[in-house]
Amino acid sequence: MENTQSKSQTPLYEDVARQIIEMIDNGTLPVGSRAPSVRSLAVQLKVSVSTVVAAYRLLEDQGRLQPRPQSGFYVRALRRENVEEPLMSRPPETASAVTVGDLRLLLLTEFGQPGIIGLGASNGAVSDWSIKAVHSLMSSISRSQPLLSASYPPPAGMATLRRQVARWYIRAGCKLSPDDIVITCGALEAIHLCLRAVTQPGDAVALESPTYWGILQTVEMLGLKALEIPTHPRTGPSLDALEVVFSQKLVKAIVLIPSAHNPLGSIMPEENRRQLVAMVRKADIPLIEDEIYADLVFEPPRPRSCRSFDEGPSSQSHVMVCGGVSKTVAPSLRIGWCIPGKWVKEVTRMKAWLNIAAPTLPQLALAQFMDEGGYDRHLRKVTSIYRRQVERMSELIAEHFPRDTRITRPQGGFLLWVELPEIMDSVTLHDRAIQKGVSICPGVVFSATGKYRNCIRINCGLLWTPEVERAIPTLGKLIAELIEAHQNAATEPGYDATQC
Amino acid sequence: MENTQSKSQTPLYEDVARQIIEMIDNGTLPVGSRAPSVRSLAVQLKVSVSTVVAAYRLLEDQGRLQPRPQSGFYVRALRRENVEEPLMSRPPETASAVTVGDLRLLLLTEFGQPGIIGLGASNGAVSDWSIKAVHSLMSSISRSQPLLSASYPPPAGMATLRRQVARWYIRAGCKLSPDDIVITCGALEAIHLCLRAVTQPGDAVALESPTYWGILQTVEMLGLKALEIPTHPRTGPSLDALEVVFSQKLVKAIVLIPSAHNPLGSIMPEENRRQLVAMVRKADIPLIEDEIYADLVFEPPRPRSCRSFDEGPSSQSHVMVCGGVSKTVAPSLRIGWCIPGKWVKEVTRMKAWLNIAAPTLPQLALAQFMDEGGYDRHLRKVTSIYRRQVERMSELIAEHFPRDTRITRPQGGFLLWVELPEIMDSVTLHDRAIQKGVSICPGVVFSATGKYRNCIRINCGLLWTPEVERAIPTLGKLIAELIEAHQNAATEPGYDATQC
Known about the structure:
Two copies of one chain form a homodimer. Chain A is an alpha/beta fold.
């Protein structure tokens, strides 16, 4: 049914363009080669000449083909391939309190606003059918078993969903029982409960740098300190740095996003995971592993959870896994889970005292969606869409942002981390962009120490529309204006560069 | 539709019995009077003689009628009218840490178990139609607006629901704007957020004694201390005691359940509310008002919220109102709200950092349920059912429990607080009862100081079945056995009463 739907909704010329891109990507049409003539392609694909012309125009707009007079269309080198990646981060070596909460709340409020292109959110919304499927399961379950909802759900969550999560984690390399799992209201709540279970106010925790601002917020809310670890944009946190942190006993816990990191899109290599788990076991320090994007990596197989490298029973594990479906099925369901290892009793108790339990019906519907294979099918569909959108967004940024911009090469998820020229203030850029109807996420919120002021995070998970395409040139123009204003100020009489 | 359904499901003789009870309750048939003869009533109500006989047998079983040979049936005095109420509580005068969490978690886990008569829960489940109605609204909303669920809900909650809550609070005497309201995952989460916003670990907070164990749990989780206030089973906490607490600056906040208290069922008089609000304003101490049972009081009008006595704009108020629909519509929805007064910004931020927001769809459905008048109609229906069930349960307890038992006279909700003879250990009673398939809530969990060991809380909100009727005689037998065992032990040689 979805296929029919998607075919009937996509114009034919877009289908043709997609086929050409596939030929470019798989090497059939290498960079510099001449694309088939309009006429021959029309015959070959059994479409009209005007359809092929429309497809080639689209590919020209997207920077994939370049027309040469009297000669036809040629495959262009991708601009983004000439753009550098960010370097390994170098955060301060001491732990600090976290205090930029108000900006984060402002951002969170903006994300939901109608009329704003939400490039600042981290919201995978390319397809609404998984939401429809889960909602429809909710309807049928509520009709067939209304009394299930007449009582409080158990604190650890509905057994049917815990069974499905345990089954799902086989592909993450983990042998789990439903009793190892606690269902939460989203993955952030899971991280909150884990940190509560293993820390006291005033303790320090190690984090990647940059890292998801929600984690920093939790650290602030619990009165903890953040120790940021140098982090590579492809392979994640430096194990050497962590070794020092552990040996000097600088932290009480560590919170990482090893799979399709937010905001970097990095995947920690298997060997690093193995080593890291050995380190946390030796140091007797809990590793809180945020797996919220792990089901969205571009190249199968799905990465093994760090938990899978911790041998022995789950009830002895130092790895506390946190996950959920906000990035895959729908954020509005607010369903996450926690696999707290040796702290399962503490986390269950805290979940109960916090808000008793997660709502019943979404849990039952999600369990059925997973059981019937809907979740798996959905993932296969969306990851290829996200991959394509991340590539297209990188192209647009390469084209419209200043030359010395750096862009990550995400290996999963739908986020891009963009390093703008040093002089850029992304909070100012954010304020200007909102007035133009575009939200971005300024880099400062990804650090406890005010770093990354010249960085922004861009969401590529939106429903792809012409407005999204136009948002990047709009941002590019604002950036150019801000740079020009900065340069003019620098050359004005009386300007003191040291005060900049 | 509901009427038809309920008529077709209730046997005719129960309808007849209900009519007789109404005549007793409204004084048409006073205590001691002779009920109409079987034959005359059959003619009058146009039912068969055997139906009237069945109805009279039921009323005899329920202790409402007493047969006298050759004379007919007579109206009995209610046993519960001869049973005393508990006295004003007398908790210790110093604040203490809270630490009986494991017992509470065990209870919470039991509540959801199939095959257990959940007299230990606090779960109003007499009718499933409100759940069905809300679920059906969820279905239609998800069909008509699927994309609403493709993004994160705003941290404060969906505007439509906040508008409805603001409108609803007009009958609580409050003038609110939607911006004064934060939607939460249940009322307990609202209390948690309020306490986080206004206290620091180590602070003391004033509570009723006994009070809802979830509040004590939150106090424990946040590292606070509990100062229990002497509390009257009809009118609530002693204002004199609070005056001393405020003047000596012993607490940083106060958490009360002024309307249909859990577990006492008390309603704080309006004059006390007015005085209390003046006191908290003068002392500059936030009053957290748990209103979760406020829509379930037996005698209209619904009590005015303490907030309504705090003049001036909501954004200046010292009263932080917490409420929700877990006791009215369905606990499985996990929807609550907070009206944090002058701390609205802090509470919104903490809600965002805790778990981003409450799920979208249940919020929208509940808003529509309230808007269409469904919530109001539902309340009118269930409160009369709860009132009847509370009375019936009191009768059963009066009949089957020891003579010196004391029972509260709830003015709303569906809970009874039962004071058993001093020597009873309700934790032991709980353990024995669970083996017989009946859960109760032992009194110790309602105190920070281990008080109320001889008390239990009984849920009258269950779907009323013959199993529920039989659970109280079962408990009565267990209590008698425990008392006998105690007395035997006391008369055994070598027994030292001082060690009891």
